[in-house]
Design a protein that fits this description.
heterodimer, A: about 375 residues, mainly alpha, 19 helices, B: about 400 residues, alpha+beta, 4-stranded antiparallel beta sheet, about 50% helix, elongated
Chain lengths: ~375, ~400
Amino acid sequence: MNRFAQLSAALVLGATVLAHAAGRDLVPTSDAQVIVNLPARVPASASTPEAAAIAARQAISLARETADTRYLGRAQAILARWWDQPDAPTELAVLQATVLQSRHAFDAARSVLNQTLKRDANHAQGWLTLATLERVAGNYPAALTACSQVARAGAVLYAAACQLETSSLQGRYDEARRGLDALRLQTPDAATQGWLLSLQAESEERAGRDVQALSDYQTSLALAPDGYTTLAAADLLLRMGRADEAQKMLAGQPNSDAILLRRAHAAKMLNSPSWPSMAKELQDRFVALDKRGDNPATHARELALAHLWLEADGTRALQAAKLNLTLQKEPFDWWLAMASAELAGQPSELERLRQQLAATGLRDARLARWLTKPVL
Amino acid sequence: MKSLTTIHFRAIGLAFSLLIGACSGAWAHKASDAYLEFVEAAPPAAIEAHDKANAISVKFSIALRDIDAAIDTLDANNDRSLSWGEIRQNLPAIQSWVEGGLGIDCHQSKMNLNWMFESLEERPDGVYARLNATGNCPGNAAISINYQLMKSIDATHRLLVSGALQGLPIASVMSPDVKNSITVREAGTSNVNSAAQSGWSAFAQFFPEGVHHIATGYDHLAFLLSLLLPIILLQRSKALPAHAPARPGLGALMRTVTGFTIGHSVTLALATFGWIGSPTWVEPAIAISIGVSAWLNLYPVRWVRSDALAMGFGLIHGLGFSSIMREANVSASLLPWALAGFNLGVEAGQLVGVALWCGLQLVLVRSKWYERVVVRGGSWALLLLASFWAIQRTVTS
């Protein structure tokens, strides 16, 4: 067997040399050739808290528009002087929490907010962010408490929307629908109406009223185009088997991991020859993320979806989906874990997930087929 | 109750536009990374061995988006559309910026590296500029890296260090704000830091994975069994013909196992490093390979040699193993170690299986019905099993 050892060693050594060739060379043909389009410039530093708040918000918005997380790092650099400082102005501490939340560091974001809001309870945005974090963690009673603090800080409309969204997660869909309708009638501006409609669409999806949900998503997008709502609407279309419409919905969106994943899924559903190359690109991105040494849980949702949709590998999908559930527990995350457990043929895992889900009090029609026992 | 100030209202406006997107994973893109690679190019033969040990050659890649944040003049006309002409005119500025922020120390003093632009390169997250530099550092002097680029511009920027020094791999992640200095080689020794250690730990981690994979990979074991069934280790008759080799079946057995090992090792390595994919037909093809091999036991074809068959089908089985390695997402510099551990684990598990079979055969081979029941019956059973797997895997793939 010595020959094998030698062969393996030779193979491994040969591979090492070539394994680092990561980038593909780009040779420009003329000075006029445009190599890259750069996003708007954001000030790299700020001397006053007010200027820092403005610059950090710009950087966060840029991260959101371009789906490029590097701008969250820039926002953190702008906030550096106040980052993790116990006496940071409330505004900047809340922005720190927003950066952390955007980076899926939910626990850290929650702890920053809890400390800050203990000092200064009169910050509506802080409470609103906290409510979102509690909802993501599946702590609906805590989310409702935070929503009521939003009202106390004076942002009545946001407080009501916060409370209605949480109620809907607990299964009070009709109450949410009536409440959101009423709020929309009180709101003159299109952006806020669009946002309220996107909440309503999500609530309708949880209620199992997919047609109404799709129509609400479409109206919402017509009033206020938004990446998150587009993604949610595309997911609904994919779930309804309308892959070609989902593809159209996603056209023009930045090619983030989440969008690329949906594009590949739609292409696969339509038997388009382009899906394997999309799946490969996604795989390359996962590898790049891993090399960086970031917390693997932060991209476990996309990893699980890739296993589930593109590879139909239930076992690996379940593994990633369970890791993802340690980070976030939105309805979609439960669906992902349970669909993976089902594909993997692991009824015991499904039962365990069912019990965990019951403990949160979440109600969602998409999960109903796995809930043989009524959840009370 | 205190009413909201203007800034609060603006903040809420921001909140609602950010909050709803924040948990969607819509920006799971990775943050800003730059790459530093230690290259061990084979120097011309004319250079003495002494100089070879002293030469340091590095490549550095950084995103144009990051250079833009650091060098205001990059987008000279400020139209946010970056042309090659604008980049070309800024090459001296880029080179001196890298010179100032990325230092490699030899013996605690900064080496004189002459950073030169090499090429633009496309990576999954955008276009990068790649620079290279060479320097000299005596074989026994400490080498360390200091990294300050993007400091105070991007708090999550990282430098991923890879490559090898004196044949030993280097793997590290640096941060300009938190971990901006690392020692890659200690003074007075040729010890390259940390990586060799973690290389072995990657090996140790993946060896049992390999054993586990083969022990639970019934299809691979079934294939091996189908190849080994007709090989008789010892003749029943004690009186061997004079011209027969001393141990008639052992050579064939070793050649066959060797062939299978070579075949699957090659494709496992190729697929692990991403040079070839693992298409969906692999799983059904593995089942078919068992069926073909069992069929040939029942109806032998003279010119088909079992070792060649083992090697050819081994190529397909290697693709089957590779999914584990690709999923494992091991960092590139540790991948060879992990692969070596996994592959040798597979071989070890395989050898245990072969040894068990040999022992069993030595007992069974004495019976008169060995050929009829074990070889032919076993082959028919494997053929049936393979057909079942082939159908099942075609339907579900």
